[in-house]
Design a protein that fits this description.
220 residues; two-stranded antiparallel ribbon; alpha+beta; six-stranded mixed sheet; single chain; 8 strands
């Protein structure tokens, strides 16, 4: 009798898990197929959204670029409200660690920000960057209108052709950016002696800086 009860419990749990996965997949498809939301200029500043592995690394890269005034770490691309670091790390919220790049479009344009994006990561790594693995670390470019989407597709296809490789970056309509916890903001600058920052973030930043010296602020 005990064995039958255990079997029924296992089958029930398996069914619930399967149903949950189906529901999550359905919600993720809705996110990917939604209409993009365009963020208006504020005080002359535009906003762009990217996911490319650990947001500490991506924040440091974009903050070194001329025309970028601020980068905020957070979460995007998922189907749950108010995601947290702990929740997104389970991979069950659909969100990826992402950044909001606040920039002056008279100094740097979206096309250049895309060049920064593709030029500061391993473009072929799926669901991760470097040692960080999982869907929460996947690469995503968020577009706010059809012109941005067309440009993203063009650059992605061109890169795939020149590198003769599959480019991992996904392309999503922008819907919502959830700001991350305060302790994640300006992390590389505030914690230069952190072992992850020393061994992963800074080398990734230095590699980008050597590749694109003409895009850097004068203090970098």
């Amino acid at each position: 009798m005990k064995n039958i009860t255990t079997l029924i419990l296992c089958l029930t749990l398996s069914f619930v898990s399967c149903q949950t996965k189906k529901e999550n997949s359905k919600m993720q498809l809705e996110v990917e197929n939604a209409s993009p939301i365009e963020v208006p200029l504020k005080d002359g500043m535009a906003r762009a959204y990217f996911a490319s592995g650990c947001f500490w690394c991506v924040e440091a890269v974009y903050e070194s670029v001329k025309g970028v005034s601020e980068v905020i770490n957070g979460y995007a691309g998922g189907y749950t409200d108010n995601p947290t670091y702990q929740a997104s790390n389970t991979g069950r919220t659909g969100h990826a660690e992402a950044v909001e790049v606040i920039y002056d479009p008279t100094v740097v344009n979206f096309s250049t920000l895309l060049d920064v994006y593709f030029g500061s990561q391993n473009t072929t790594q799926v669901n991760g960057q470097g040692p960080d693995r999982g869907s929460q670390y996947r690469s995503i470019i968020f577009y706010q209108n059809t012109a941005q989407k067309a440009l993203i597709v063009q650059k992605k296809e061109a890169l795939a052709k020149t590198s003769n490789a599959n480019i991992a970056a996904e392309i999503y309509p922008f819907q919502k950016f959830w700001k991350g916890e305060d302790y994640h903001q300006n992390y590389e600058r505030l914690h230069p002696n952190n072992s992850y920052i020393r061994n992963v973030s800074i080398p990734r930043l230095r590699k980008f800086q050597q590749k694109f010296p003409h895009l850097l602020k004068s203090n970098h």
